[in-house]
Amino acid sequence: MKTSFLNTKKITKKLGKLISDFDEIHWAIAWGTNNELADKLIENKKNIKKIIIGIDFSHTAPDLLKRLASNKNSKVAIGLVDGTFHPKIYYFESEKKAAAIVGSANFTNGGVGGNNIEAAILIEGSVDDEPLIDIKNMVNSLWGEGSPISKDFLTSYELQYLANKKHKKALNKNYESTSLHLKLLIQNY
């Protein structure tokens, strides 16, 4: 078994290669958007065995979910935890080989598009290596509790996504921490 550290650029490059090179794709990811890797994933959708994607905070793009909906092995994480569905697990398998990327990168423009600072570990080895077995089992367990991406779900989620989109700009603002600003925040709290 071999492990390697990946930064954002390496995560993106390696994910693209693994999507193309492996016969099976098993993922549990917090959020996703359409991006170049999404195009590659959809080109290889016959290899998707299990993908579960989160929708917490409306961070996953409905367009990506629409593209994944045509694959019966794609699900959404609805109500699986009291907190946030937040894994970033990309597992791949072909015959006796397996590989996994586990780290901070969501399947978003920021996470795998190069805009964020991300970090991950790449594990490459055999399907019989215990860490890789554990990673695959976790994805499969989460997927088993997921919900299909139905037309009704997509309609409802897209409305929620659009309603929340206008608030995201305000939430992403960087605030200066001047004394006056801090006083105002404390007074309004």
Structure overview:
- There is one protein chain.
- This protein has 189 residues and is of the alpha+beta class.
- It has one domain (2-188): Endonuclease, Chain A (2-Layer Sandwich).
- 42% of the residues lie in helices and 25% in strands.
- The protein is built from seven helices and eight strands; from the N terminus they run βαβαβαβββαβαβαα.
- The protein has helices at 8-21, 36-43, 62-69, 109-112, 130-144, 151-171, 179-188; strands at residues 2-7, 24-29, 48-54, 74-77, 88-94, 97-103, 119-126, 147-148.
- The protein has an eight-stranded mixed β-sheet with strand order 1-7-6-5-2-3-4-8, sandwiched between helices.
- Helix 3 links the parallel strand 3 and strand 4.
- Helix 3 (62-69) runs antiparallel to helix 6 (151-171).
- The chain is globular, with a radius of gyration of 18 Å.
- The chain starts with a strand and ends with a helix.
Task: Describe the secondary structure blueprint for this structure.
Blueprint: E1 2-7, H1 8-21, E2 24-29, H2 36-43, E3 48-54, H3 62-69, E4 74-77, E5 88-94, E6 97-103, H4 109-112, E7 119-126, H5 130-144, E8 147-148, H6 151-171, H7 179-188
Parallel strand pairs: 2-3, 3-4
Antiparallel strand pairs: 1-7, 2-5, 4-8, 5-6, 6-7
Helix pairs in contact: 3-6
Structural class by secondary-structure content: alpha+beta
Oligomer: single chain
Strand content: 15-25%
Please report the number of helical segments. 7
Overall CATH architecture: 2-Layer Sandwich
Describe the structure using short key phrases.
8 strands, alpha+beta, Endonuclease, Chain A, 8-stranded mixed beta sheet, 189 residues
